[in-house]
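Appendix C: a fully annotated inverse folding record. The material below is reproduced so that readers can follow the format used throughout the book. The structure is listed first as tokens, followed by the designed sequence.
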């Protein structure tokens, strides 16, 4: 019989492949080109990669090209955007002096995306300017619509969802228990956010005298901050756990115990590529459940736990 966790994993992998297939087959995307002057060689690839993700700008997009130039001078970076869709140039100088080296690429890419979107948003606010530009660059209506969508998306997506296959590690079980986690995140000012997640796991712990079925539902609530490379949050987990014994010997009788579990948790998540993300969670259950096993070690859902999830960020 196919395990529920394996079925959940298959569904999520299929969804990811469908998303990738759609993205590859679609012509959507606004073409952008990057130039770097005086910048460290190691900085350019990650900056361009992350900025393209933020702007939904695949490298093979065709049409009127938005030029993005970076001129580095010490800790200062001068950003120059030549936008043919609105026939204007915008620029800004940003400082990386207070940013750790490992976080510079991400924050610089986000600054680029903010500046480009601030230009493209004119397509939504004033689609027909009072006076036409003197030297307009020809662009398609589809390309302008795509740029407008990218520009206004960040204003409307204060709420973001996620779905992930999750492996829960409980020390007394000895192996991960597969499950599914559905999450919801709300953006707050100053890179802060509040998030919630609903998770379900179903697995077995094997003992010499039989098996113990473990089922757990958990509701997490947390607040966090977007920092370079990773999103971090702290919160509380409240859940329900059921332990049901299935003895392998007729002389023994199986019992079921269940109850509420709760405790603090820490969450970290990282964007891998596009909508693909990794979540790592850990915590300590202040109240748990214990399944007593005759002739072997007990199964305890309590104390330390950890989980690792792989899935899709929806709307990110």
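Designed amino acids, in order:
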């Amino acid at each position: 019989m196919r395990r529920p966790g394996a079925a959940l994993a298959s569904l999520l992998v299929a969804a990811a492949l469908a998303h990738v297939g759609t993205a590859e087959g679609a012509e959507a995307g606004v073409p952008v080109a990057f130039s770097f002057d005086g910048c460290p060689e190691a900085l350019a690839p990650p900056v361009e990669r992350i900025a393209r993700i933020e702007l939904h700008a695949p490298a093979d997009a065709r049409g009127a090209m938005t030029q993005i130039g970076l001129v580095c001078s010490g800790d200062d970076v001068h950003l120059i955007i030549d936008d043919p869709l609105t026939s204007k140039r915008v620029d800004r100088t940003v400082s990386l002096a207070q940013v750790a080296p490992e976080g510079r690429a991400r924050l610089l890419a986000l600054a680029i995306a903010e500046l480009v979107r601030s230009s493209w948003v004119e397509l939504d606010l004033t689609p027909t300017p009072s006076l036409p530009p003197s030297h307009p660059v020809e662009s398609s209506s589809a390309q302008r619509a795509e740029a407008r969508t990218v520009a206004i998306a960040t204003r409307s997506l204060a709420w973001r969802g996620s779905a992930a296959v999750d492996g829960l590690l409980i020390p007394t079980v000895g192996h991960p228990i597969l499950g599914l986690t559905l999450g919801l995140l709300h953006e707050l000012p100053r890179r802060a956010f509040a998030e919630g997640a609903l998770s379900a796991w179903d697995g077995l712990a094997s003992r010499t005298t039989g098996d113990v079925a473990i089922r757990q539902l958990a509701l997490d609530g947390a607040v966090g901050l977007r920092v370079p490379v990773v999103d971090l949050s702290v919160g509380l987990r409240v859940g329900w756990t059921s332990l049901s014994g299935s003895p392998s010997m007729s002389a023994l009788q199986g019992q079921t115990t269940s109850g509420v579990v709760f405790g603090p948790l820490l969450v970290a998540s990282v964007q891998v590529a596009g909508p693909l993300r990794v979540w790592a969670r850990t915590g300590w259950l202040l109240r748990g459940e214990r399944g007593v096993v005759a002739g072997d070690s007990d199964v305890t859902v309590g104390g330390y736990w950890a989980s690792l999830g792989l899935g899709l960020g929806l709307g990110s």
